[in-house]
Amino acid sequence: MKLNRIDLSKSLDKQTYKTLHSGLAQKLGELQRRAREAGVPVVIVFEGWDAAGKGTLINKLILALDPRGFNVHPTNPPTEEERLRPFLWRFWTRTPARGRIAVFDRSWYGRVLVERVDKVVSREDWQAAYEDIDSFERQLAHDGGVIIKFFLHISRKEQKKRFKKLLGNPATEWKVSKEDWRHHKQYPKYAKAVEEMIDRTSPDWAPWTVIEAHDERFATVKMMKTAIAAIERRLTRAGPAAAVTLRPSRIRSSMLDRADLSLSLNRAEYENRIDDLQKRMRDVEHELYRKRIPLVILFEGWDAAGKGGNIRRLVSHLDPRGYEVVPIIAPNDVEKAHHYLWRFWNPFPKAGHIAVFDRSWYGRVMVERVEKFCAEAEWKRAYREINEMEQQWVRFGAILVKFWLHIDKETQLARFTDRQNTPYKKWKITDEDWRNREKWGPYKAAVDEMLARTSTACAPWTIVEANCKLHARVKALTTVIEAAEKRLSD
Q1: What is the pTM of this model?
Q2: Which CATH number fits domain 267-489: 3.40.640.10, 3.40.50.300, 3.40.718.10, 1.10.357.10?
Q3: Is the distance from CB of 54 to CB of 90 less than 8 angstroms?
């Protein structure tokens, strides 16, 4: 894409515009209703030169829509709160629910435009952002969403002319800042960055449309026609998610079968070690806060494997202002209306804080897979999506520790029976626990594949031998402390 080859002389006369606009606005309103009924989320991105008319075109777009069905998100430089999380966090949390429209006035592309040219981030960071953006948009599109991206193009000469016009009116002079003039001087550098951005981020599921924006009427009509075509294409593409082909998982031997479940600690040894570990964990929390390093810990495991007990011992000496335990249960209606990873991006801890997930995003490839709560294509696609999310978190600087608490069937049966026969423990056991136990084989197969496909160099799994609860608690605490101390010493 070469911006200097684009014909910016395109225009529409007033009468032609008036005739076209009325029909296009009516069509957009109709498509909004159809998208809402079909549960299709729509993301519309407006990027472009300063003074290219983004605000004007956004206004033209939303005037055709039911205001109850969309949100407009102006994207400014990240706040302090946003800087303490991965750069896509503030966009993930604003993705629309199914049937709604999200309009972004500037977007995640600021990382490869303004932040790149102005050297707010390193070359390594903005280069890595291309990979993160690709996975972000692909995940939304493969989940059934529509992504429409506009770049409003004007010449350098036209930009200068518009700046002067804005400055000539007391009501609009505030719109032109010193930074705008600095970017105007950097026009060639920005043009190079824009061309690279368009070339590298125009896949079939999220292509760029360059809008020739010298003439407002022409730009409006092209924008509306493009949005209509994109939404119509998605609404006519009915049916299940596309099939996903996975390479055979490299399970030479089960990680679970290799676990030595005879490992144990006696009570005296446990009491001798646990207090020291908990004090070290408290020191780790303080050091993580001081160095602004986020820590994410997740616990998965068999029912009755001891996740709750492990979490209690892990956080018992921590400052409650510095951590959050995130219990994961079946998604509610709001969570179901978003991409399944949306609810896990939301509680990502800010830098220097700790998040402990009691169950996690891995439900997609375990419970949802075995119980058929999602389509086969969805859980197969999830392995890649999960690896990408975890890689982004680690690249941001997070420490990620993943535990699978492993017990054998006999131990589980003994714990189930104890819960059922002990009045104050009875609330812990449900009919669903017994039903899930009957599916031990399918669940084990799902866990084995999950471990094989998602134990990566940046986010490996740790199997915790949990037949002995005391051993499990010490191993989990030791693993977290060692991972944190290693990072703190780097």
Answers
A1: 0.94
A2: 3.40.50.300
A3: no
